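Components:
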Amino acid sequence: MTANMNPQLTVAHLSDVHLAPLAIFWPNYWNAKRFLGYANWVVRRRRSHLRAVVDQLVEDLRHQHVDHIAVSGDLINLGLPQEYERALLWLHTLGPPERVSVVPGNHDIYTRLRRHTGVGRWARYMESDEWGAELAPGPGPRFPYVRRIGPSVALVGLNSAVPTPPGVASGEVGAEQIRQCREILHALRERGMFRLVMIHHPPLVSQIKPGRDLKDAAELERVLLETGAELVIHGHNHRDMVSWHRTSTGLMPVVGIASASIGRLSRHEPLARYNIYRLHPPKREHGWQIELIGRGIREPDGPVVQVEHRWLEPGKSAEANLSAASLAPR
Ligand SMILES: [Fe+2]
Ligand SMILES: [Fe+2]
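Structure:
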């Protein structure tokens, strides 16, 4: 197969931008969770999640000429109507919906929203394209959705966000979404596609403490280990993490990423970063190769530089990959 028929593709991944909420409360939307969330923002988060840093990363990303941008949730903080509008404007700065895919985080589906459409404002970024609609039909927001990137990569977007009580940041995918995810991943495997799965919460059991975890991680993990996937990406932990899992179709890397807006160190959360995946198609002697390039800031007010470069090779037998199970802390 020639390079033109099956080219190398690049996908950028950023997460947990937590764009600042406005200091205006609409009485209709006032409740205990938003009050506590706002207090947390004022006392702590606003000092570390900086819009200037997000803009810096996005400007750097603009020069990387990627084929697609994947955003794994927590775009906002309190789930207020104006936050959805402002986040939509921000998404427009990233690119058109055809080139940008989004899944919601627990701060995007936060608590009661009355009649506001919420993440529905981002629907065009959360729906199947024409190709994927054969497997996951329907307008956005629709989960799972399926999008094709180039001739051989399929992105599957899952929603793990559900409204929760104050102090709870857990998520749930739900039985129906897991059932569809299983069918879709099998079908994409039969078509020989590289399967890139995106979800906000870490998708596997024991990846995060109770209260912030995925309630049905055991069910989702069972499906992912049965179907396999070439790469799973997530946010939520605000940490860089890589783990490998044996599936029926080979090794599956699961990669979590730091927040894209942390400009000041806070609670040991690393400084802002995004990842670029260069997906190298199979050649005769080996399967898919994933080149992971992390770009971010190394110090407050510092420039965006390359902070990580590593290879992930799902088709390769375990040892080389498993020997480096975690990203080096920065
Ligand atoms: Fe977050
Ligand atoms: Fe989150």
